[in-house]
Sequence to fold (354 residues):
Amino acid sequence: MKNDWGARLLGAALIAHLADWNRQMSEALRLTRRACVLAFAWALIVLSPAAGAQEPLAVAAIYTVPVEQQWVSRIDLALDEAAERGDITYVFSENVANTDYERVMREYAEQGMDLIVGEAFAVERAAREVAADYPDTAFLMGSSFGPSQPNFAVFDNWIHEPSYLTGMVAGHATESDVIGMVGGYAIPEVNRLMHAFMDGARSVNPDVTFLVSFINSWYDPPKAKEAAFAMMDAGADIMYAERFGVADAAVERDVRAIGNVIDTADQYPGTIMASAIWHMEPTIDRAIEAVREGRFEPIDYGQFSFMSFGGGSLIVDEELVPAEVVEEVRAKQDEILGGFFRVNVNDEEPVSDG
Fold:
C-alpha cells in the first residue's frame, strides 16, 4: 500500500513537471515566433528600395538668359539629371534682369532652398550680400572672382583645354590663314577660351591671323551673325562660334565653324568641324553631395570643369577633319590628360591681329 501511495506521488510530480515544461516550451515558442515576426518585419524595412532614402534637396537656379542659351543649358542639363535621379527637386527662373537678380535670390532663399545656383558675373556684390544674409543656404554661382565666407562658392566653364584642341583643328583647316572669332563679353571666362583656341591654332599654323569681335550680349544671334558676316567679308574662312548666330552665318556662306560649350553638329551638319564641350555634372554632383552631407564650403569648383575631372571634352567630326589631323589632336589630348602638357591660361581681352 505504501509503495502504491509513493508511486502515485511520483506520478503526480512527474505530471506537474511535464505540465510546467510544456508551459515553458509554449512560452519559448511564442517568444520565438514573435522574434521571427519582428525580424522579418525589420528585414522588410531594411531591404526595401526606399530604405535609407533621403529627402531630395531643394535646388533653385537663376538665369539671366533663356535656358536654351549654351552656357546656361549645360547647368540646366546637370540639374535636370540630378532631379531625375531623385537627388533634388529643381526649379529655375530664366531671363532675370540684373536689376531683379537680388530680389529673386532672396525669394528663393526665403522659400527654404538648400542650394541656389546661378551666375553672378554682373551682380557680384549684390549676390554676395544676399548669400551673407542666408548663412544656412548654400550658393554656387558662376563668377569671375573667388569664393567668400560663409557660403558663397563659385564655378566656371574651364574648358580651355578642349578649346586649345579645337584651335589645332582650325589652324590646319584654314586656307586663307584668317580665322574669325565672335564672343559675347570680353570677360576672363570668355577670354581664356578664345586665347586657348588661338594658341592651339598657332601651334600648328604660325601664319594664322585672327579677327576678334565682341557683341556685348550673351544672347543676340542676329548681332553675332552680322559680326560673323563682316569677318568673312574680310577673308575669314573658319569661324569660332562662341555665340549663337555665328554658325548660322557660316552655313549661309559655306564656311566651316568651331563650336563652343555645346554640340551643335546635328543642327549644322557639314559646318561644325569640332567643339569644346562643357560638362557641368561633375560640379553639380559634388556640390549636391557636399550640401547633403553638411560639409558644403565656399570653395572654387572651377577645377571640376577640367578634362581630367570629366568637366570638358572634345568632339571632332571626322568626316570634316582629315584622319592625320584627328590623330595629332588626339595625341595632344592624351598629353593633357596625362599631365604632360598644360594649356596656358590668359584672361586678357584678345584683340585682332594687325
Confidence is low (pLDDT under 50) at residues 1-16, 31-51. Residues 153 and 299 are 5 Å apart (CA to CA).
